[in-house]
Records
---
Amino acid sequence: MEAPTLRKAGSKQEEAFGVQPRRVADLGTVPSLRRSNSSLHKVRRSQNLFGNSEKQENLSSWIPDNIKKKECMYFVESSKLSDAGKVVCECGYTRQQHLEEATRPHAWQGKDWDPKKHVQEMPTDAFGDIVFTGLGQKVGKYVRLSQDTPPSVIYHLMTQYWGLDVPNLLISVTGGAKDFNMKPRLKSVFRRGLVKVAQTPGRAWIITGGSHTGVMKQVGEAVRDFTLSSSHNEGEVVTVGVATWGTVHNREDLIHPSGGFPAEYVMDEEGQGHLTCLDSNHSHFILVDDGTHGRYGVEIPLRTRLEKFISEQTKERGGVAIKIPIVCVVLEGGPGTLHTIYNAITNGTPCVVVEGSGRVADVIAQVAGLPISEITISRIQQKLSVFFQEVFETLTESRIAEWTKKVGRQAGYTAWKQGASGHQDILVRTGHASRSHDHFGHENWDHQLKLAVAWNRVDIARSEIFTDERQWKPSELHPVMTAALISNKPEFVKLFLENGVRLKEFQASEGAGRGAGAAGRTGDRPRLLLPVPNIKLNVQGVSLRSLYKRSPGHVAFTMDPVRDLLIWAIIQNRRELAEIIWAQSQDCIAAALACSKILKELSKEEEDTDSLEEMLALADEYEHRAIGVFTECHRKDEDRAQKLLTRVSEAWGKTTCLQLALEAKDMKFVSHGGVQAFLTKVWWGQLCVDNGLWRVIACMLAFPLLYTGLISFRERRLQAGPGLPRVRAFFNAPVVIFHLNILSYFAFLCLFAYVLMVDFQPTPSCCEYLIYFWLFSLLFYDPDEFGLMKMALLYFSDFWNKLDIGAILLFIAGLTCRLIPALLYPGRIILSLDFIMFCLRLMHIFTISKTLGPKIIIVKRMMKDVFFFLFLLAVWVVSFGVAKQAILIHNESRVDWIFRGVVYQSYLTIFGQMPAYIDGVNFSLDQCSPNGTDPYKPKCPESDAGPSPPEPPVSPARGVQAPSVRPPAPTESKLEKNEEAALLSWEIYLKESYLQNQQYQQKQRPEQKIQDIGNKVSTMVDLLEMESLKRSGSMEQRLASLEEQVAQTSRALHWVMKALRDGGFGSEEGIPAPAPQKASEGQDLEPDGRQEEEDVGDTHHVNARHLLYPNSHVTRFPVPNEKVPWETAFLIYDPPFYTDDRKDRGLVDPVGKNPMGRTGLRGRGSLGCFGPNHTLQPVITRWRRNQDGAICRKSIKKMLEVLVVKHSLSEHWALPGGSREPGEILPRKLKQVLRREFWSSFQNLLTQGTEVSVPGPGRSAGHAWGGASSGGSQDLRLPLQHLHACDPGMSVRWQVVDRRIPLYANHKTILQKVATLYGAFY
């Protein structure tokens, strides 16, 4: 029954577990291309309202099949009673709390209670939503599950059914389970730092014990304080509590077999007894059940497995896949906490210890950073006496030695001090641990950079990654650059640009073909995808979509990568990214105007008002940027600035800046003084702009005046040249053409009026034929190079052109009627009405006037509002007219008189003209028709009053639309490539000047100054606190150093006095005894008074003293560092005996003891034989060379590369060596990666190499140890294709020699010695 469900769950887990998704989500192709935050919140709210019931049904059906609880099936009376004095079972539950079958006579009757046999799994009965009564409406999630539940099922529940996003960081908080006090400042710093880490983009998960005590309570209060002070947009902190079901107080409230939606939970701290309440500030609870009651620690194994499983998953964000890092944060705590964090450190999990929180955390923090030789039993004993005063007397010597061993493993500890930045410590420590654990070489830095991008911590990237220690190539930053763009992280984009990434090279390396959408992947390479709206850019009809070449189903990147990224950022509503990319663009004025146009067009499709206003504000901002850059250019050189206006931009559809400004209706840019000066120059053509208008009109009427010098020209050749070029230049000027058109149009109207009023004959006259010719000549308009269809669309886009077409069509209709003798009079009426439409065209002509133009535009805009007022007026007029007509006139059947009575007369009533038959003063019956038979008289009203006076004639009125003149199309200039490149370079230079001025003005604003001062004050406070801590630490170090020097001086004097006494000078009674050193010195003295020197090989013996022996359940006896040498007395040393295939504990070792010292284990362990077990580790190296063949150097020293191998089951790389049988030269592992024809040559190389001996690995025991010898071959130029792996799970590679390589400890020692031997970098 469960297999199909689990298979389905497994398929759903693929994305959450980091498996490559089978399809790419098209995030960018939404209907409106952009979606605002507010609209997204509305959509999510609606989805939550309609989707909660469906989610509850899915959860109720999935959980019983996959999540189990545990129940005791056999009641065995315990000798202990419950807190209430009741008889309980061995499981801790009373008889009433057992199932009925558990209390019946059973086959197990008389047997001891065994949890493996007597506790069985069954479908869980506690899951759903949890609400803490009296604490608001915050809803959490909870589930009761068996301790044997696979972590993959729990992870699937959290990500799929609870809706949690895959985390980018896992924070496991451990420490004291009982309440403890923290200093107020430390508590504040800890809470801020923890929550800030949890709020990294992509979210982190905080995992605790979930109860309302101890460290769990501190974490909950931190989350509560953040929730109360944060805004809704900052989201919820995911806090997962993993607690034991049997220790939860009031857990009966959570039992709902079909799911609690919600289950109300009551926190009763006073009545909880030895149980604990759940913490109300956690968002999710995993309640681990083993079938018992009141037993703590049940959840620890499952929590460990769950954390390990989550840390092994891969999260893909922004095209970059990273393993989910994990960090352990320690507050306070006791022996159990120390064991937990020691295991975490052993498994490679970094630990951040909060100094000042008490007990274990303070013990570790006090010794963190000290040399290993100074972490002695006496020092740990002194620390325990301070921080564990209550239980110090009960600690045995072996327990203190174990503490010394565990605390001395400080490679993974980081002390979080009060003056430090907590979140910085956590993230930096996690990044370093992740970097050194799974990666090395340039992969170290690449992985840590991916983590910084995933966490959006550019400060960590600047301080920890982009340092002198690592030089980045621009090509190495391209994947993370893509991730930063897709995940909208502008600070990282700016950082990568500062470190050499160029957008053109970046996009070129990404490839030319890209599809429509938002983000996707091709193989392992992330890519940017571009949704392209159809937005017109210029009057020729070039649209934004036409800039791209069509491919099946998609559009492809072409020509200008910076432009494409800018369009992508604008469409995706990524404002800061767009600003950065625009600053990198070459054609910046055209780019800013194009962005303004795109934003204004997109705002028309936006439904949300706030987003619409944001788009328009951003469009104005880009218009101001275009104005700012053009102002800088115009200030420097007016002629070159005007060339920028008319330069044809190939990137933006072969359009000009001026055309883009007109299409975007950027009137502020068009009204700029430099643009207006250019337009004035274009308007006057070859004429000087200081010519008076009366001179132009005079020369238009009498062109021979041009020969008199009345008109001046800009070019001297025209001013002093022959007459014909001057006449041609004069009449080609736009200002002259415009006024000629005005005169021509006035002449047309005068002639039209003359024909209508004076010369309208049955047969058309000559003047009328002239009107026909004049009018129909307008139909033959030259479409230039635009094309007929584009020109038609452009022509009909203007209102006044539509009015012209209407007037012409009406003229054709009137002409048709006029040519038919029977319709001569209707034709004249139509032509007369058409004359009104031609007269209205004058408004469009006079919009160019400085005096009349603004007033005409005002009237045009006013008329739009008047139409709404007329609608309201029509409602009142018609309603009044219908009532008046129905009351006064009985059964009027003539439609025209009904219209006059209902509409016309009611409209005149508004102006005080009351109809005579209503007023009744001057009414006469002769003015109306009693029966309504006279077509020229209205029907008489039902009244005895006299006849009404005649009604005034109807005078129709017509609304007028205001015009707007389309200015002549600006000229375009096609520049030479060299000239265009120089012009664009000049524009870029002035753009940088403009941006610098903008930054300076931004800094000079009062708000910015206040913010800067606040930041400086905060920084100064932090520096002062750090300085205070440094001074105190420095003082302690100086005092310790002084104390050590005094002790050394005392020992030296004692030695001198002893030597003098031995030489016969003085007597033994006169020698003063040296003062004993205090325990606080933390240093043990040998019997002869000498301080124990640090074992030089101690660092090589660490792996051989791990508490847990590899691949077994044997625990070593803890051996502190100072007790490793056999010469040092260690009276309590009692190591266990372990030999993997022998059980004889009394076997006497015929060889001897481990020469490196104590290991905490007797026997030979898993090694092959007693005594030394020799291995050969060949160090095959070559010089690292660049493409030119030159040897690479770092810090002046040459760089080596070494051949390393890695097995699929191992997490570490290693040298290609291993155990060697007697008589063999090549180890078996090296033969697996070498072709057989190279075996003999490698044997010769190894015999010529230098041999180095180092101690063996962590499998060493007290009577068997490993010894590694290495032989080297130098500068071996062997390509990887000459290497092969017989085992498909074996990987081979050349790796740069570096101290950060995560090799086995003895292998790193070998490499260090080899690097020293050759004088290479390490």
---
Amino acid sequence: MSPSSPSSSPTTTSGILSSREAASLQDHNVICDIPDEDERVIFERKTAVRSSKTNWLKLYRYATVWDMVFVCVASFCAIAGGSMIPLTTVIFGELAGNLQLVASDAIGRPKFFQLLNSTVLYSIYLSIGIFILIYAATVGFIYTGDHIASKIRQEYLRAILRQNIGYFDRVGAGELTASITSDINIIQDGVSQKVALTMTSVATFVIAFIIGFTRSWKLTLICSCTVWSIVAVMGYGSRLSIGYKKKSLDASAEGGSFAEEVLSSVRNATAFGTQDKLARQHCSYLAIAEHWGFRFRATLGTMIGILYSFLYLNYGLAFWAGSKFVVNGSATLSDIITIIFAIIMGSASLSQIGPNFQALAAGIAASSKVYATIDRISPLNPTTEVGTRLANVEGKVEFRDIKHIYPSRPDTVVLPGLNLEFPAGKMTALVGASGCGKSSIVGLLERFYEPVAGAILLDGHDITGLNLRWLRQQMALVQQEPVLFSQSIAENIRNGLIGSTFEHEPEQQQQDRIIRAAKLANAHGFISALPEGYNTYIGERGFLLSSGQKQRISIARAVIADPKILLLDEATSALDNKSEAIVQKALDESTKGRTTIVIAHRLSTVKKADRIVVLENGCIVEQGTHKTLLHHRGVYFNFVSAQRFVDHPGEERDEDVLSTASSTLPKKEFRSHDYEFAFEDFDLPELGTGVISVSTRDSRAVVNDKNHRVKQASKMPRRRHKHQEDGNVRYSLWSILKFILSFNIGDALFMSLGLICSIVVGAGQPVQGVLLGKAVVSISLPLSNSSRLRSEIDFWALMYLMLGLVELIAIVAQGVAFAYCSERLIFRAKDRAFRTFLRQDIAFMDEKKNGAGSLTSFLSTEINHLTGISGMTLGALLSSGTTLFAAVCIALAIGWKLALVTMSTIPVVLGCGVLRSWSLRRFDENSKAAYQESANYACENINAMRTVASFTMESKIDQDYHRQIAKQGRTSLKSNLKTSSLYAASQSLIVLCSALAFWYGGTLVGSGEYGLLQFTICFYEIIYGVQTAGAVFSYAPDIGKALNAGSALKNLEDKRPEIDTWSTEGKSVETVKGDIEFRDVHFNYPGRPNVPVLQGLNFTVKSGQYVAIVGASGCGKSTIIAMLERFYNPVSGGVLVDGKDISRLNVNDYRSHLALVSQEPVLYGGTIKENILLGIDSADVSEERLLLACQQANTYDFIMSLPDGFNTECGSKAILLSGGQKQRLAIARALLRNPRILLLDEATSALDSESEKIVQQALDTAAKGRTTIAVAHNLRTVQKADMIYVLENGAVVESGRHDELMALNGVYTELVSLQNLAQPARSN
């Protein structure tokens, strides 16, 4: 078997895309195989992405001067605030010394109480200072973090916008969208509030040890040895964790790119019923991300376990060494207590660095990928001012010895040495088979790519020396698959003015130009009929318009600025024949005096071209005018012959009568004014109604009758779409928590282990409190009893050793268990969210807020937030709860009076934390909405980079994105000022609690009611218990985000779509005969329920028939396909298959008997084999069945001609294939299903004449024995149909076979006459 045979594919459907590392290695190997050195350099420049080495300081590379000023001030406040906290240890040490003195009657009680009051006042002053400093630090870092992240987002988008198109052949739009949301959010964490927390902790640690050195440098030096051990462990662990995090982010980005591809073409997945198969492929990326994510989290857990173990060992070491110094008289009890508590506080602060360091490490890892994109030098940068601008452009274009190879397919030469001239002011048409290099010529002229050899000249100037933005502004491109943006119609057309001399005209003058351009493109009629006219919002990618309407708007956008060079790449392929005739006439007028390059498969559009160039395998085989090429009887003649009509279906005419073919058609003059309003579109929800003007009396009568019936139907109650009734539900806290934790039900063993270990970890501090009290009492023994003092201290030091080892085991086990649970949670939640997206009906996807960018952003960002109530956060909450509970119990048992007084402060601290959590949650809701909008905007434009580049929209997109980001910044600042005050209050109240404990505890000791043991244990247990409770609320942002994300995901899961692919309801369908009936069907789209689309539609299709649906763009043809696929339910009436209403059938069973080939083919990144196999959700597809489907679709030879055969990568969204190649693969995918009902929505629209003829023959053969419904503008493809229905205004106006409809001399006849190439061109 050959290496390229389908069965030899080395990949599986579980892994469509290779990892980023594998892709880079593959690119490197491919480049090395290129023999020519110059070509290797060009290839490397096109695709190379250099890695970016980053550190924490480089995260601030986009900080402004004022940002750095605020960072410096905030850093000073964080350090100063952290430095003030250890001063409480000095106060406590002095208090302990005074307690010893008063107990031994060394000082009197009045003197003691005087010293006690001074101590309390110092504590109050410290509390006030800490509040002010922590508040300023928190506000400063949150503000600068948000501002810097906004700058990074903008710079990242700018970097994307300036990249060459070859870069996007390698990196998917979904991956870039995931980075602009998820990765930059991670960077923001690394430069925001957690930096302030880290600085505060570090300052506390440093000052605590400074205090220790001033009291006893020997003891402090001994204790500091563990610090260096901690630093070594943290350094090595951080290095590992950063590497693991980077690999996890890379895998997540690839998964995001795949998810975006699928969600942007969800109709295709729904039609083929491959949601589960695509979800499994998505899982393959999630599994890789989970693998590296687990290692990242487990490494951090191990680091924290070692850190805590060292701290407990340090306590034992401090008491053991300190006892020696006390005995030999080199230190006092006050010194020892101060040093021990300083070490306790400093070490505790150091331990808090771990969780915050996680954010810093993740930020550094994320910045590596983001900065690599920002730093990439694009070989074709449209934003630079470098290059010449010609004073005058005539429009002469010349290709000299052009050799072109796509970066993604270096072993396939597309243009082997093309020499071609396009005269100024003339129309040149490029025709040829799919993949012959036509679109490559346009891409090279637009400088989407660079040729590896040769030169392209504009008016004698090499275009590589011209300014790229200026060059593109001299051209206007209309692509085969028109790309519009989620703006109004007017804004979409106005995009064509960017960079022109008309860009800054007054708004009214621009509006006049928009209207003139729309009239020129035959779009003004249907636009004016819309309720909001030119201000009508058209949805993401213009999904609220039909293909014909989108193409007309894109034509208006292209001609509005009067470009010097007009590039038309199948500009009228999506138009019906009437619209095409008018638009083509308008284009013929608009092309006069300007250089026009036309790419066409439909040769009726290029008959008037000044020169027609026929390409084959990247070489010119013929050129001349339409007439001369026909007389030449060569390749072009064969193309024309393939596109002509025949007098009778199944009967071929001799080639010599081609020139007189028009005599067989009715001698009816076509008048453009007859159809001025004949193309009003009623196909999609944003469209309005209009009057259809038809040319025959009978047809007009039919339309009037239908209009009357529509008025009657409009009086009927309309069915509300279920998705419109579903709003966002507010869930209780408990229901959200239960929902989030349900993702870990399958991990009960690991979860139980983590929870048990969390309890053990939480009990560590209360046990330490008891050990501390006992050790303090022991070290306070009289020096005369030094042997007992040393003996007891040795015992308690060993207890600390035991505690350290137990906590080490518990924390490491907890970290590993929760790391596993957290990654499983993310895996399952992302998988379920993706499957839930695919479950929703098409009406859900039509909503503006549910664009592919928004949903991809939800997957990459929001789902990760769920770990805020799992993993490390869950362990911290449980540990803190255990600590607080155990501490309170021990304190009450030892000294209930002091315990009760100090416990009164706990509700205050807890209340402050709850308020802060609530505020952060509200802020997160607003922030998420704003960033979701900006992420959706960025995603849409990244997906349309060819259109963006062609119309030089980079600057406009950058400005619009900046406005959205700035708006979010203003919103976040207000919330920041509120939430920061609550956090600062929660920190300063700790010191006030200490002051209260000092005062009351000192009073009890001074009165002789309590001893030193009771005071020490009660003070430590309660104060540090309260401090632990306060530390819990440092997780408030994560908890708030988790609750919001959980609520959003639960809300999504609770939505029950009206057409539910998960439902087992409905009658099962084992076999389908193929009889179809539309019975009085009325339909309007959910987005515009008052605009009728289908208006009492009635027609029948018998089993095995080949039925064609024809008519003007927007008449309802594609809606019929959507109704048959059951993308929507009719408002009234019914769609019946085999006499059964399809709404009563099980939707999955029913769709399994259908296959759809859409007008715009949808393929995914991956190999050709993997894309074809997506036609059926089955793993056991035989090789013979696969080959047969490819042969029937006329794609087998093309596949085998590729170096890798079936294993050839298609690229993101199959960017590496031509339109015709993609369409043939889509047909093969449909035929693989062996459907009983075949739906063809312009299935051959993207094919050249030769391929179209062969594929049409294959489709005719495939249609035998099955019911086929074909929507077509190209009437040649349906002239052999058993029945042709002509639609206007959502109703049938004519029906019959081709010859019967021709005999009527009505609407269909005129459509045919417009399209027949054999008809001589009429004079103007």
